[in-house]
Amino acid sequence: xxxxxxxxxxxxxxxxxxxxxxxxxxxxxxxxxxxxxxxxxxxxxxxxxxxxxxxxxxxxxxxxxxxxxxxxxxxxxxxxxxxxxxxxxxxxxxxxxxxxxxxxxxxxxxxxxxxxxxxxxxxxxxxxxxxxxxxxxxxxxxxxxxxxxxxxxxxxxxxxxxxxxxxxxxxxxxxxxxxxxxxxxxxxxxxxxxxxxxxxxxxxxxxxxxxxxxxxxxxxxxxxxxxxxx
Amino acid sequence: xxxxxxxxxxxxxxxxxxxxxxxxxxxxxxxxxxxxxxxxxxxxxxxxxxxxxxxxxxxxxxxxxxxxxxxxxxxxxxxxxxxxxxxxxxxxxxxxxxxxxxxxxxxxxxxxxxxxxxxxxxxxxxxxxxxxxxxxxxxxxxxxxxxxxxxxxxxxxxxxxxxxxxxxxxxxxxxxxxxxxxxxxxxxxxxxxxxxxxxxxxxxxxxxxxxxxxxxxxxxxxxxxxxxxxxxxxxxxxxxxxxxxxxxxxxxxxxxxxxxxxxxxxxxxxxxxxxxxxxxxxxxxxxxxxxxxxxxxxxxxxxxxxxxxxxxxxxxxxxxxxxxxx
Lengths: 230, 326
Description:
The complex is a heterodimer of chains A (230) and B (326).
Chain A: H1 13-18, H2 22-63, H3 69-77, H4 83-100, H5 109-129, H6 132-164, H7 169-229
Chain B: H1 2-22, H2 43-47, E1 68-69, H3 76-79, H4 107-112, H5 114-118, H6 123-126, H7 133-184, H8 192-195, E2 207-208, H9 229-240, E3 257-263, E4 269-275, H10 284-298, H11 308-311, E5 313-318, H12 320-325
């Protein structure tokens, strides 16, 4: 028995991948791609939310500093680069249109401004929330995908055990290690995805409520103005 | 988004590279070890173990360790059988037995006889042919044997009578003893110490036919050759195919017949099978005959030739209940 002398198995990461069944290989590459995508989304969302938050802070500071709203509008209208500024610009544009047009129409102005702000808020929240669903999907599905790879690999290795008619650990171990590698990758993809999803969705909720609060305050200010001018 | 994607991809690539460098597991060098089967064995099996020591001298036939000469099977009875069939050699085919040669007149006798031959030749046919010394010796031996046999039979009868008397005496003595013991066995808490087992720890000595204190080199299997259960079952199945158990023997615990088979290497019977037990059941004789018939009819038996030493002399139990149990 030549192989009885010692069955050596290479268990480095590359070997684990290379020796696996092609189905398991597909699962592994898919999960790796998922992981890359998840981290890309996470980095992007992190930067976006950070940027939005600082911009909001700066805008609120400018807004409540007593600066003229006309000036603020002029400085921002060219490039409304973050959500609260976009909200402000949209409301101000509607306001200005109502005054600068040939016919002054105050009757539905309040309602129009609110509508515009609602639409802007929903668009901004949608922009913030985009791709967060991918994180949720990866977080919940990739463990199962990894498990599928594991089950497939173990089935495969059991078949090879049956073929070699040798049940010693040396024969069983490499196949199972390979198969478990798929679950490991699945978990590696899923755990950050779940954590990031929870963190970012709560962050997005916070910013959305902040936007709504600003919209309410701003519409209150505008409505006072309308009543004064009418 | 592209920036984030590149950052992520680069990060993963770096991680995998780092894994490739650091996560080098030593190759698993697992030597295949011999499996260690665990078996529950009885005392008799333990004493039959011939697993040896590596340092022991090499012996032709490994012997089990024996510390005490145990009971031997009654082999002598069989050697007494006078009508021996042709002696079998190891070869499968029975060797042609040399027929007893008629003693040819030896030249010496020829010299001695001329005196007789000198007498008138007519007398010769009337006279009995000159008694041959070899034949005479055989006859004498036979006569002696007969006399011995008769003596033996008489001896046995005498012994049987003596035994009967002794048995009666024994019975009486035992009854007395039992009565005394019954009185003695009344539980006395003061004498608990007397009930304790004061024997020093001991073990059963391994028994065999010759004392052998040195371990032998042993066999590959570590066991002396015995028929496995499946081989015994195979033999039983072969016999059962020819066995018509006595009808109506469903409840016959007393109809169990043990038959001793002595087999040649080709699986045929070398000696007529013998019934080894007696039964009080009225149908026992019929059952025994049926068993013997089955044994005779089903030969030759197919058994592993390598274990001939074990199955050349086996006992088979015919249990009608087994048969009806199916």
